[in-house]
Design goal:
CATH topology of the largest domain: Aspartate Aminotransferase, domain 2
Number of strands: 12
Largest sheet: 7 strands, mixed
Mean pLDDT: 95
CATH class of the largest domain: Alpha Beta
Number of domains: 2
Number of helices: 15
CATH superfamily of the largest domain: Type I PLP-dependent aspartate aminotransferase-like (Major domain)
Shape: globular
Distance between the termini: 42 Å
Length: about 375
């Protein structure tokens, strides 16, 4: 087995697809690859809420929710997330991956069908694949193909999509998907991990921005480790949905609950998301500045209005080289390569935060222009 694994690793290196962890040290760089879109991960109010709760409850929950791990902090956060999303109930999960896999598996059985956008996050795809349902993928945002696949499908039908796609930065045609789901008597589930906090008047995500309700999108998933700046995830929906997940989602039942201190920190960040609208306004201003500058410099930016701004490079070796060159110039930008993205679609995934300044964006554009000219 050892020799086979060595050969596999060497093959990845030869293709420019070998992944290495970068240890973040004391070197001063501007981080343009974090999902901390609103700059809350190191917010003093959020940190203070965490410390206060940790002093009382410690740093671990000690058990699963259904044993003795469900604290007042967890319950209060679930109620506040339900109100924030305009839904009857919300349920906390320890990670977004667990929320997606657990929810899809809890809702589907053998003979059912699940339909997923081809560019969905790996956790959604794994949820569909690990369920006993018929698993079908449709080309990215291809509504016509989705309708064809739905026609004649057996059992309960579940349509699953990202809200903001994590590698391309574009958004799902959610309003149209909701109509198709209604017409075809299917459930609709959205993973709005990259929309929460960023989109919508109060940061309620793509569903809020499009003014869609629980009836339109019955299953809503959001993560807490991105715009919220903390950790974990949640599913929001009807009373019946949440009770079903409590009884049947194995990734909820059989795992330790989030630390109560994380829940309290998230309650603090939720208040900031709702009330400090300047963070979203500044974020949109920075995105507009970058897009305008990239267009003027003829940089191959992929179409996106979100904080995720992918710069298409193509070759994996070249994307990795440019990422290292950017680091040497004082910018942390990750190279994204297959299989995370399609073959020959390697890119620099540039993300923005409300903590960035206009000067940071200008310097990044200047550096990207210089490096791109050198590579061409």
């Amino acid at each position: 087995m050892e020799s086979k694994l060595v050969a596999q690793l060497e093959s990845l290196k030869a293709q420019g697809l070998y992944r290495s962890r970068r240890i973040i040290d004391d070197k001063t760089v501007v981080n343009f690859c974090s999902n901390d879109y609103l700059g809350l991960a190191k917010n003093e109010t959020v940190i203070a809420a965490f410390k206060k709760a940790a002093d009382i409850d410690g740093v671990g929950s000690g058990s699963a929710h259904l044993i003795c791990g469900h604290s007042h902090a967890h319950h209060a956060l679930e109620e506040e997330l339900a109100e924030f999303t305009g839904r009857e109930r919300a349920l906390l999960f320890s990670t977004g991956y667990m929320a997606n896999v657990g929810t899809i598996n809890a809702l589907l059985k053998q003979g059912d069908s699940v339909f997923e956008d081809k560019l969905n996050h790996a956790s959604l795809l794994d949820g569909g694949l690990s369920s006993s349902a018929h698993f079908k993928r449709y080309p990215h945002a291809d509504l016509n193909q989705l309708e064809k696949l739905l026609t004649g499908a057996s059992g309960q039908k579940l349509i699953v999509t990202d809200g903001v796609f994590s590698m391309d930065g574009d958004v799902a045609p959610l309003r149209e998907l909701a109509k198709i789901a209604t017409q075809k008597s299917a459930w609709l589930m959205i993973d709005d991990a990259h929309g929460f906090g960023v989109l919508g008047k109060t940061g309620g995500g793509l569903v809020e921005e499009l003014n869609l309700t629980q009836n339109d999108v019955p299953i809503l998933m959001g993560t807490l480790g991105k715009a919220f700046g903390t950790f974990g995830a949640f599913i929001a929906g009807s009373e019946t949905l949440i009770e079903t997940l409590i009884q049947s989602a194995r990734t909820y039942v059989y795992t330790t609950a989030l630390p109560p201190a994380i829940a309290e920190a998230t309650r603090a960040s939720l208040k900031i998301i709702i009330h400090e609208t300047w963070r979203r306004e500044k974020l949109q201003s920075l995105i507009a500045q970058f897009k305008t500058g990239a267009a003027q410099l003829n940089l191959p930016l992929m179409p996106s209005d979100s904080p995720i701004q992918p710069l298409l490079i193509g070759d994996s070796f070249r994307a990795t080289k440019m990422s290292e060159q950017l680091l040497n110039a004082g910018f942390l930008v990750s190279a994204i390569r297959p299989p995370t993205v399609p073959k020959n679609k390697a890119r620099l995934r540039i993300t923005f935060s409300a903590l960035h300044e206009s000067e940071d964006v200008a310097r990044l554009l200047e550096t990207l222009h210089r490096l791109y000219k050198l590579e061409n």
